[in-house]
Every structure is written in C-alpha cells, then in structure tokens.
C-alpha cells in the first residue's frame, strides 16, 4: 500500500512539473516581456548555483550523462525485457518502477531545457535590446567586401604576434577558459546581462564525434556547461568558448552568440582572443561574400590572407580531416547531415522560422557593428 501511495505521489509530482513546463513555454512563446523577465530575473539567479555544482567537476557532466543515457538504452532495454520474462509475478512492479524512472528523467530534461534554454529563444534579440536604433540590414556588397578585407588585414597582423610551436601551430595557454570569462565580463558595462558568474569551460572527451558533426562547441542546458571541441585548431578555441559562455547568460540564438563572442574577443586587447574573433568573423563573412560576387572578385579578397591565417582558419588539420573521412564506422558526411538536420528542427521548433539559415544573420550583425562602432 505504501509503495502504491509513493508511486502515486511521484506520478502527481511528475505530471505537475510537466504541466508547469508547458505553461512556461506557452507563456514565453506568446509574451516576449515574460521571456525577458524570466531570463533576466529568474534564470540568472537559479543558473548560478546549478552551474556552480557542475563546475566543481573537472570533466563534462553533460557528456557523461549522454554516455549514461546511451548505455541505459543499449543495456536497459534488454534487461527490462529479460526481467519481464523471468519475473512474471513482479511485472506490474517492474513496469511501474521503470515508468517512474523514465518519468523523472523526462522531468529533469524538460525542466532544465525549459528554464535554461527554450524560454531564451523567445527573448528580445541582442541587437534589438542593445542596438535598437541601428540598421540591421540594407548593407551593400561593397560594404561586405570592405569588411572582409578589414578582417583579413587584422588577422594577418595578429597572426605574427602569437606563440607557436615548431610546426607553426598556436600554443594554447592553460588559462584560456579563465581569460574567456574575464573578457566576457569586460564588456558587461555595455551589455549588462553578461556580468556576474560564469561556468567553467570544459573540453569534450569524445571530441572526435564532435568533429564528425562539424561542432566547435556545445552548451548543455541540463548541466549548465560550456563545452568545446578539443581537437579543432587552437585558433578556434577562444572565440568558441566565449560563444558557449554567451549561451550560459541566456543568449541562446546562434547568430547572436557568435556576434557577442566576436565583440568580447576583438575588444579584449588580448592578441589570441582578438585573432580568434577575427578568424571566426572572417570565415562567416567570406562565406556570405562567396554568394554575392564573381569567382574572380572573391579570389581577389580571399588570397589577401597570409599563409598562417590560411592554415588557422581551418576547422581541423588536413590530416585529421582525412582520418575522419576515412572512418567507415560513422561516415563524416552522414554525421554532419544528421547534425545539421537536428539543429534545424530544434531551431524551428523554438520559433526560429529559418532554422539553420539563421546562422547567416551574424554577418548582418557584423556589418551593423563594423559600420556603426560603439
């Protein structure tokens, strides 16, 4: 009798939390003011103790939970079937306990995703919040071309200022994560939500999988962690860490997170971070320029890069990419397509109607900032 009462109480709690999450998501979807209030006043306060606990652990808790989840599926399903066959007299109890366990897992995922991620999609976007009077579009191809050239010039200059090993690879300092937090806080005078505590940036152990998925970093809402790919070129790491830390402050859209990371990097006065910021902005802008001009005009801009920048702008080394493409267990092309599709679905489900194409809006923000310096 006590077990049934306990199970009923747990079921009531599970259902109540799910209903609350649904209400919060609906309220945010229909009221930007509610989403802004929640993110500015509630999320920021509850995220600190939550993220503080996971920051005490030196490895990515989110990565570990994903691994445990996969193992539960691979091992748990056969064990459940075996238990149902072997323990005929306890089938109801086994089914009830399994359902309650899955219910609590669902509640944890839904609650943390809602509070730490989903609601933020409905907030006032960064550009409208902090640059309400600046034009977000209408820039010319000539302006885009000049901006690309400007980024390349800056990257070329900075490329010679960085410490490198004998093979020309950038040497990444041990305190790169701490420096990223410092640089994010340094711009909080202009952008107030970026002030305060940040979680520690953590490397992903299975970074090879991230490389197959073309992922430089990932923010885990269910653990409040900013994670980055340990196998990518070191030129990518500083800006990527800033990008993921931006998500931890409630700016969840990819285009604005990349834009904020760019600002933090180029205004840091730190050559490594400035270089990383310009490399990222240069790559995004060149991709856009490629669609707007002739091949000859594009080549004229592209080949302004020196050899160091040409190498550092890559996601991973050529040798590493070749090894990824030769892997027959999980083909890189297939993994990348699956990743893109999953992200596209997630964005559209959260109200970003153009899905992954929204990433291109970063270039509009860069143009706005480049021609209207603050």
Write the layout of secondary structure elements.
Blueprint: H1 2-30, H2 32-55, H3 61-86, H4 91-116, H5 126-130, H6 141-159, H7 176-186, E1 201-204, H8 207-212, E2 217-220, E3 225-229, H9 237-247, H10 254-266, H11 271-290, H12 295-302, H13 307-312, H14 318-326, H15 332-349, H16 361-371
Parallel strand pairs: 1-3
Antiparallel strand pairs: 2-3
Helix pairs in contact: 1-2, 1-4, 3-4, 6-11, 7-9, 9-10, 10-11, 10-16
Describe this structure in words.
It is a single chain. With 374 residues, the protein is mainly α. It has 2 domains: 2-122, no CATH class; 127-371, no CATH class. 65% of the residues lie in helices and 3% in strands. It has helices at residues 2-30, 32-55, 61-86, 91-116, 126-130, 141-159, 176-186, 207-212, 237-247, 254-266, 271-290, 295-302, 307-312, 318-326, 332-349, 361-371; strands spanning 201-204, 217-220, 225-229. It has a 3-stranded mixed sheet, sandwiched between helices. Strand 2 and strand 3 (225-229) form a beta hairpin. Helix 3 (61-86) runs antiparallel to helix 4 and helix 7 packs across helix 9. It is globular, with a radius of gyration of 23 Å. The N and C termini lie far apart (67 Å). The model is unreliable at 354-358 (pLDDT under 50).
